[in-house]
Structure formats: structure tokens, C-alpha cells
Amino acid sequence: PYTGPSASEILEKRKEYLSPSILHLYKNPLNLVDGKMQYLYDENGRRYLDAFGGIATVCCGHCHPDVVEAIVNQTRRLQHSTVLYLHHAIADFAEALAAKLPGDLKVVFFTNSGTEANELALMMARLYTGFHDIISLRNGYHGNAAGTMGVTAQSNFKFNVVQTGVHHALNPDQYRGVFGSDGVKYARDVQDIIDYGTCGRVAGLIAEAIQGVGGIMELAPGYLPAVYNCIRKAGGLCIADEVQSGFARIGSHFWGFEAHDVVPDIVTMAKGIGNGIPIGAVVTTPEIAKVLMGRTYFNTFGGNPACTAGALAVLKVIEKEKLQENAFVVGSHLKECLTSLKEKHEIIGDVRGRGLMLGVELVTDRQLKTPAKAEILHIMEQMRELGVLIGKGGFHGNVFRITPPLCFTKEDADFLVGAMDYTMSKM
Ligand code: PMP
After folding, report:
1. CA 143 / ligand 1 centre spacing (Å)
2. Does the UniProt entry include the keyword Nucleotide-binding (predicted)?
3. Is 143 a pocket residue for ligand 1 (Cβ < 6 Å)?
4. N- or C-end of the chain: fewer Cβ atoms within 10 A?
């Protein structure tokens, strides 16, 4: 049993010693002390079904024994910086990761986070092309350092950041966007930005295939191929931010971009890659990778032995336990159930996403699409009481984000839907 400080004691310390801007879910935040696969346990030993997976960071399940074993064994033997010496764990994972990517995407750079991965990707695109302008999508999230906060396009996450050479394109938002699901029409905005907002040449584009923080918004079909075309004609590189949509989560494919039939020039990843431990990566072609030669690009801990040993175990678990297939089967079932719930409850405006990356947008008026901001908070609190943890996001904070560990079962999905249905019925 847990004998540490209580939730209220931790909260007191947090108020005094931690950033005032940290956010937490729930009026009385949960004090989580244990995790096992798709379950989390609080200080009283109460079990919760985890449908948010720590913002999609947990892919093969909390404390998966194979991953824990790999990390512990490596840490017992040696844990040090990534640079300066050789270590097989780093090379082994780079090789295994490169094998998961198409085409010539074969050179891996390790980082500690998604932010760092995207910062590096943006810098490489600028160095490689010799141009400065970057296009990203409104409603996208890419990180919290100078460059990535600049390309992030939601005021909620932006401070007074300098963002020269950044252009935010019309979001191909299939629910609220002016062109509905016609991806090619939205893509014209990118061509307009290039024609009217730049010298006609750009460094590149950065985009998520399914916007995570932005409320599980899958880019309209046809958008990415058309936009990749415009960017490449303007001399730019295409960066796929797979921090949330990568690593088997979408079920139909291993990477989010694959569902859009494109091959990026640079792919960035983090979160699920380490099943909860800090590691990120940039994968690109040998030709683009060369831009970092001649100077030293240095990252003390990016891809250190303990993290890469753990991440290699993650890849093996995904294969061994057929987690991509599971994400497809369970995710499709869950999406169907949520879609039927929409027939029953007026408050559900939209159900979307793929595999185990699903979104449920709540509105108080289906015609006006008025965000149901207060209602979503109420439902989240009630679902927590019923033992289900779920995320939320979107610009208005009115979209449920369902991104559980990929070991989620059909029974788990039914339990989640039951809890949501019950709560909505009681409102
Ligand atoms: N890209 C995407 C798509 C993300 O969702 C996030 C994190 N929410 C990041 C980048 C930044 O990752 P990190 O928080 O690890 O820096």
C-alpha cells in the first residue's frame, strides 16, 4: 500500500514550489501512484481505466514488463551521455527505427522531447533549402521552444514569441472548416501563402496528420498530397510531426502520414516512442542529414542508452503483441460505439479520428456548433467518478481526446462508452 503524502499535501507543495502555469485535470487532481498496462491506481488503491495514456505517451501499456526490464538492465550496467563514445543500444534502436520508415528515411537523430525534435527538423529544413519561411497549420501544436512555439498555432500555447518567417495556413478542419472535407481546396491557401507571403521559395511545411492537442482533427483527405506538391515546387521540405499519431496508434498504418499517401522528407517523433520515458527522434534522408556536418550538433542525453534500450523494447512489444492490429480492431469498434452514441445524445457534434486516436466534440447546438465547454468538464468529472480517465483538447477545450495505451481491449472500450453514455443520460 501507498504510504506517501496525500493528494492535498502534494497540491500544497505544488502551489508553493512549482510553476503557477502547470495545468491539471479535475477539480481535485488525482494522485496516481501505480500503473499497470491500461490501468492507473490512485493513493487509495482505486483503479481507473486510462483512456488518455498520459497524452498518448504510453503506447504498450503502463510499466510494461519488457520495457521496464530493458531500462532497468541497461541502467544497472551503464547509463551515460549519448555523445563521445560508442554504445550498441543507440545504434541498435536507430537501425530498428529506420526499418519502420519508408523510402530513404534512414538517418536518425535522437532528442529528449518532441519540442527538440521539431526544433531540429525546422533548423535542418532551413539549412538544407537555404530559405527561411516555414508554413504550419492553424490549430497545430509542435512544441514550446522559440521555433516550435512560433509554428504552433493556438493562442492558448503561445507567449510573446518571436516568429519570423512563419505562416499559419488555413486548417483543413473537416468539422468546422469552410471547405468541409475537400482537402484540395484548403491546399490552395498554402499556394497563396507561397505566392503572396514569401519570395516564392520556402524552407518547408510542418504538419501533424491528425492534430492531437488541436482536438483529434484528421486533416481533410487529399490535403497533404496537394500541399506537399506546392511546398516541393517552392523548393521546400515536408516535415511530418508524428509525435502523437506515430507508433501504430492509428491502427491502419504505423505512421499518420501513411494514411495520406505521402512520404515526408523529415519525420519527427516523441511520446509513444519511449512508452513514457523521455526520448524523441528526427528521421531524415542521408542527403538532408549532411547539413549538420562540419559543425557539432550536440545533445547530451538525447537517445541515451537507458532510453534507447527501452525504446527498442517498445518496438518489439508492438510487433510481438500485434498492437497496431489491436489499435485498428479495438479503435474501429470504439469509433462505431461512439458514433451510435451520437445518435442518442444531441451534445455530441462530431466523432472522429482513427484507431486509438479518437475525438468526440461536444456542442450545445449542433447547427451553430457552439462549444460545450462547461458540459465537457462536468462529464469528465463524472467519468472519473465512474473510474474512467479521458483527455480533452481542441481550441475551445470541448473535444474529448481518447488516446489510450494500445493494449486497450473491446471490453475497455465498452466500459468507456457505457460511462460516457450513463453520464450524458443523467445530464
Ligand atoms: N508535437 C506534437 C504533435 C505534440 O502533441 C507535442 C506535445 N503535446 C509536441 C510536438 C511537443 O512534444 P514535447 O512536449 O515532448 O516537447
Report:
1. 5
2. no
3. yes
4. N
